[in-house]
Amino acid sequence: MRAPPDQPWFVTDMIRVASDMWTKGWDERNGGNVSYRLLESDVAPYLEGWTAASSPPLSKALPEIAGQYYLVTGSGKYFRNIAQDPEANLGVIRIGVDGRQVELLWGYRDGGVPTSELPAHLKSHRARQADTHARVIMHCHATNLIALSYVLELNSANVTRALWEGSTECLVVFPDGVGALSWMVPGTDAIGDATAELLRKHSVVLWPFHGVFATGETLGEAFGLIETVEKSAEMLVKIVAMGGARQTISTQNLIALARRFDVVPMPEALALDGWRLADGTHDLSNGNVSAPVQAGQD
Ligand code: 2HA
Ligand code: ZN
Predict the structure, then answer these.
(1) How far apart are CA 36 and CA 114, in angstroms?
(2) How many Å lie between the centroid of ligand 1 and the Cα of residue 31?
(3) From the CA of 158, how far away is ligand 1's center (Å)?
(4) Are 205 and 116 spatial neighbours (Cβ–Cβ below 8 Å)?
(5) Ligand 1 pocket, 89 CB below 6 A?
(6) Which is the closest atom of ligand 1 to the Cα of 32?
(7) pTM for the model
(8) Which ligand is nearest to the CA of 120?
(9) Does 256 reside within a domain?
(10) Of the candidates 70, 101, 116, which is a domain's last residue?
């Protein structure tokens, strides 16, 4: 689809990624949400043509991100429809100088508002901005990751170790591991705080029985990260379905990968000897798990 000549590049990029996510089957109905932090220089050419409307304020002020601009998918909107009507399904917001007001500058035509997961997105942006160049927070319902969360023992080290073993490139793509949350009610400040806290240490967070949160400097990077984690999850789902692994990538293999690609793997996941299913009766780690993994490491 050819973009209208006056369509900002960031809207064009968001359309592409949202359409790809829908095609992957990760964003059924109104599932999923994405936010992209825009720089002053990104919005400067358009600001004059936009008029500010106010939206319900944030329940808690986030003064660290006051004045920042974000392109955010709309609440209740379908990713499937974004390409067809970006102005109804997306919006650009600015966080007020008090860190609490949310100004709607563009989009959300017909009275829309930003995603119900806005607290999780903004708290996660605040967390990642502190020491990375992250500009994207991406949430979706990646199919195999959700399936896997029903059978894996849910702690960050075990989930990370399983996903590293699901495919050789994984340790290189997400050496900082996957944070595993407990099940929580979505759309709340509480899940936002817990997600942001895990994102300080990990670039991916698993919401069991729901989906995944990931971060990146660009939309393409965050998408590629979820693609990689989800591909590994697909392998693991197949492996479990085939009756379990007969052989796998060893700790020594993981160490060799980290050396070759100059990454620092999450120590708690590297220290494990394989990974475990939740009930502990199906050992898929090449038969060499001797001690139970400590739960609640994150
Ligand atoms: O936007 O995915 O978690 C709908 C959701 C909520
Ligand atoms: Zn969701």
Answers:
(1) 12
(2) 5
(3) 26
(4) no
(5) no
(6) 2
(7) 0.93
(8) 1
(9) yes
(10) 116
